[in-house]
Amino acid sequence: MIGKRAPVRSSALWAVSLAIVALLYTPASPGFWSGVGWAQDRREAPRHPKTPTTSQPASPDPAPVAPPAREPAGGVLGTALASCDKESESSEALTLPGAKGEVKLDRCYRGRDHLVCSFNALLKEAKSLIDDYGKIVEAHYPEVSNVGGICGIKPDALATDLQNATDFTNRFKGLKAEYDARSNCATKIGQSLKDVTLPDMAQAPAILKSMIDAVEGDVKSVSVVQAKVVELAEKIDSSQKAMTTVRKIHRTMCLKDQRAVPQAEDRARQ
């Protein structure tokens, strides 16, 4: 019995071995390999997307942005300057004889009458700013040294000075912009006059010098006052910052009835 069963077991084992070999050499289903290929594609996929083959039109270079035009001054100054411009309306450029032909003056210059008219308007505005807003600096807000001094400032007066400081800043910006534009124009004219020649005039050098001196004198007449306004603007800016702080301290520390302050001090002394 034992000798007859051994061949059966050997045959069975041999059959199983052939089956395993057949499975190893049989191609897997397409679905399996496609899954393997998909996984391999994911592992080998580049980190950055490929550049599309279709060519994209290059974006045009941005057009240069023109500098913003200077806003004309408003209020009384704007009205006065507009009046000066209206009286000197002319599209013709002013010229003077030069060694290499006529010297064309910058179109910002419409004649000395227009320049002086504009400077007089600036001068009047500068003096008005000094007279109308100089009292803000006289309050000496940055120099207040204690709570008593701060609480002694009336809230209404503080609010008024804060509003006036804002009004001054707005008017000063307009004045400064107009002054800078016209003083720069006068400087250009002064440079151009140095290229002028007067061959028909016996006293040409003296005439040219007097012309340059006249323009420089016109600028100087308003530049002195303008410097004072710039100084005032710096002081008002400091005062405005101090006033903002004073108002915060006032709301935090001051009593509604300031008459209670001396009574509290008397109790502290006792």
Oligomer: single chain
Succession of helices and strands: HHHEEHHHHH
Based on Cα principal axes, name the global outline.
Answer: elongated
Order the strands across the largest sheet as they lie in space.
Answer: 1-2
What is the terminal-to-terminal distance? Answer: 130 Å
* Gyration radius over CA: 45 Å
Total beta strand runs: 2
Indicate the mean pLDDT.
78
Largest sheet: 2 strands, antiparallel
The percentage of residues in β strands lies in: under 5%
Helix content: 55-70%
Detail the poorly predicted runs.
Answer: 1-69, 259-270
Class by SSE composition: mainly alpha
Number of separate helices: 8
Q: How does this structure look, described?
A:
The chain is mainly alpha-helical. It has a domain at 75-85 and 94-269. Helices cover 68% and strands 3% of the residues. It has eight helices and two strands; from the N terminus they run αααββααααα. It has a two-stranded antiparallel ribbon. Helix 4 packs antiparallel against helix 6 and helix 4 (112-138) packs parallel to helix 7. The longest helix has 50 residues, at 204-253. The chain is elongated, with a radius of gyration of 45 Å.
Topology:
Blueprint: H1 2-25, H2 30-44, H3 75-87, E1 95-98, E2 101-104, H4 112-138, H5 147-151, H6 155-193, H7 204-253, H8 260-269
Antiparallel strand pairs: 1-2
Task: Give me some keywords for this one.
68% helix; 270 residues; mainly alpha; disordered N terminus; two-stranded antiparallel ribbon
